[in-house]
Amino acid sequence: MHGREAVATRFAQMLTATERTLDVFDRPPYAVAHDNAEPVVRGKLRRGVTVRGVYAPESLDRPGALAEARDAARLGEQSRLHPHVPMKLAVADARLALLPLASGEAVDGALVVHPCALLDALRALFDLLWQQAVPVFRAEGGPSGEHDALLTALAAGLKDDAVARQLGTSTRTVRRRIVELTDTLHARTRFQAGVLAERRGLLGR
């Protein structure tokens, strides 16, 4: 299909018809405004639909994105971050997929995939990146609040300025707190701190 409006309409129809599972690769650009899609997704979560999202770091660079993800997680969404999300993708009920025809600055065309070998491959790709990705939020008993964002930054490679915008603080403050956190974890590097945080259960699965 072609045209941003057509893609947005088809995605909305897909969300509305989802009954059991929804797997999503989330990365900009977006054909549908989050204000339009989020209420539908939350409604599905309340009805018991299993929603899994693999987010690109730039997905959380949008103002309020981390708070939205946290609210969705409270309703049951399973959210993870991966440094290299290859494309946008939505798979509903393991039987229908929607993905852009091309990567670019705008979503002006999409491919609808029904049960076939391509759909099987897309589902396998999602499962692979899901296993590689790191959780956005901590397990019970781990640090909360700002530490969540800092641990996420360390484990998934979020840029310091993106974290600063989410926390409403300065990049300098974020960097100082990350240094403090790496010291607390006895890590030599930021990457090692993220690995240690995940191994110790400070990031939720």
TrEMBL record:
Any single biological process term in GO: regulation of DNA-templated transcription
GO MF annotation terms: DNA binding
Name this polypeptide is given: HTH luxR-type domain-containing protein
Organism (species): Actinocatenispora rupis
Lineage, uppermost ranks: Bacteria, Bacillati, Actinomycetota, Actinomycetes, Micromonosporales
